[in-house]
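Bug #77: duplicate submission created two jobs. Keeping one. Sequence:
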Amino acid sequence: MALFLKLLHISFVSIWLAGAVYLPVIFRLHRRAHGTESTGRYIELARRLYFELMTPSAVIAVVLGTWLIFFGFEGGWLPVKLALVLLLALFHLYCGRLLLLLEKGQMAHRAGFLGLLAMAPVPLLLAIVALAVTKPF
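Kept job's structure:
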């Protein structure tokens, strides 16, 4: 049972992270297409990615991760991993705020910033996976 839960947890974390990397890319594409007819499509794509894929995946990943703690996952690495997951959740909420600004036509971030933003979840993912796999302390 615990292995199946772990498999589901890793799967939903992967989906969440893929969306967290791709959403800022959509923001950047929207920024570059500003003033063209395709901007509405980018907003719709961003909304669907955030609300229909990323958010449900994040919620399921967090619920499954919490459930896995009750199967004996413990150690000093766990609070560090949970702190990194909290940072990832805050990043998720920040992307939601950017989406709202985008819909209102108020996002003023440059395309370069949005490109860097797409890379922000990658070090978090690497650190989370490293902690979960190696359990160093």
